[in-house]
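ESCALATION

Customer reports they have been waiting on this structure for their group meeting. Please prioritize. Original submission:
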Amino acid sequence: MFTINRIGRLALRHTLVYKKGFTIAEVLVASGVFLLMLGVLVAVFYQSTAVMMKGTSQSSLQRDALGFGRKLSNAIHYGTASSLTVATDQSGISLLTSDDTNGRFRYDPALSIALWSNYQVFYFESAQNLIRNRQISVIGFPEEAAPGPIESFDSAQPIENYFTGGKPVLRDVQTVTFEEPLPGLVKVDIELARDDTRKEGPETYTFSLTRNFRN
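Update from on-call: job pushed to the front of the queue and completed.
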């Protein structure tokens, strides 16, 4: 019995001796490993976030450019080539469109001719880095039935005089070029840039559109 109790006390003493806490060296090593892993995780998270933001910015620029492209294409679809005017510096265009406020084609069945509604003026405002769209009604003017360029409308002003006001239709525009490479053909080249990542510089997107008139 004595031997068994003594062996039990020795075992308990052995357990108490070897159940010590961590040493300072072990704590420092563990802390260093933890900080190293934390640094790697933070770097990976930051890189993933930057890539995600870059992709989001690219998609946003593309969506905005395509939205503008649809608007311009619609104007050309309902427009007439005989009314097209391109600014001398290629910063804007104007054209007559025949659609009404509900988007329906205006037509005079008695005379079998289209009736024109508005001059659609698209121009680049470099100070604000955006493209604006201004509409000028021709209802009640000779151009309603006999389309012509905006320079001959009303007080016969150059197209650049109409580059004021209007609604913004595309933002973050760096450069834009409107051209008529062939009669009745409109070509637009736009460079967009948006700074969302704030590290690798602005995200850019190039948009081009070529469309011909139906009328």
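Sent to customer with the following note: Helices lie at 2-18, 24-77.
Escalation resolved.
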